[in-house]
Amino acid sequence: MKILGLIRVKDAAPTITRTLDGMATFCDTIFVLDDRSRDDTRRLVAAHPAVSNVFTADPDVSQEPWYHPEHLSLTLLYRMADFYQPTWIVMLDDDEFLSDDGRTREILSSYSTNVAALTIPKICLWRDAEFPDLPKVMQRRQRYDIRIWRHREGLQPGTKRLHNGYAPSNVRDGGVVATEERITLYNDGWDTLAKRIERVRLYTALDPDCTLNNGVPYDKGLLFGYSIDAIPALIEEYRKRSVQNAATAMGGVE
C-alpha cells in the first residue's frame, strides 16, 4: 500500500513545515504545488525529507488570488499522482493536520477496494482571545469533508474557479464513500473572528454573486449566520448567550 500526500501552497512559510511533518507520519511521499509564493515556502518545501516532487508556479506572472483557477491546480496534482500510482491520496492545506492516533495507515489498509473515498470530521480550531467561545456559543455544527480517496486514473476535479472541494468530482464512480470517525481533520486558518471577516471580504470580491458557493452568501456561511454588516449584532448575541450559559451553569451547581 502506497499513500501519497498532495498539497497546494502559497506563502505558507509559517505553517508548511508543521503540516508536512504531520503528513510524513503516514504518507510514503508528498507532492507539492507551490502557487507563486514569494516568502520562504519554496525553500522549506524543497528541503523537507518527505517531499519528492515540487511544481513551482512563477510568482512574477501575477499575485492575484486564484489567478490560476482552482480546477487547473487540482488537475495538475491529480495528473502528478497518476505517475506515482499510489493506493490512497490524502490532500491537505498548509493550515491543516490530521489527528489519527498514529493509525492512518492501519485504518486505510482495512478498507476493501469497493471503498473509493473517506469522508472525515472537520474541526475548525478557535483561538480568539476576545471571543473565546464564539463557535461553541453560536452552536457551530459538525462538518465532514472528503480529503482521502483511492487513486485511479481518470479522476477529475470540479470545474469552478474556486470552491470545488479537493476530492475528485467523479470519485464516486470508483465505489462508495465511507464515513471514517477515527481520523479527524483540523484547520486553524479560520481561528479568529477577524480572520473570518477578512476571508468573507476576499471571497465576496472574487465572487460577488456567490455563484461559486452554490448561491450561499459567504458571510452567512462563515459568520455564524450573520451578514458582514451585522457584526455588532453577532457580538451582542454572543455576549448575551454567554451570560445566559454562565447563569445556567451556576444554577446547576449544588
* Structural domain tally: 2
Radius of gyration: 20 Å
The best one-word shape is globular
Tally of separate helices: 8
Structural class: alpha/beta
Q: What do we call the CATH homologous superfamily of the largest domain?
A: Spore Coat Polysaccharide Biosynthesis Protein SpsA, Chain A
Kindly report the average pLDDT value.
Answer: 93
Architecture per CATH nomenclature, i.e. the level-2 architecture of the largest domain: Alpha-Beta Complex
* CATH level-3 fold name of the largest domain: Spore Coat Polysaccharide Biosynthesis Protein SpsA, Chain A
Share of residues in helices: 25-40%
How many strand units?
9
Uncertain segments are none
Order of helices and strands: EHEHEHEEHEHEEEHHH
**Main β-sheet: number of strands, strand sense, barrel status?**
9 strands, mixed
Oligomer: single chain
Q: What would you say this structure looks like, in words?
A:
With 254 residues, the protein is of the alpha/beta class. Helix content is 32%, strand content 22%. It contains eight helices and nine strands. It is globular and about 60 Å long. The N and C termini lie far apart (56 Å). The relative contact order is 0.14.
Give a brief description.
With 254 residues, this protein is of the alpha/beta class. Helix content is 32%, strand content 22%.
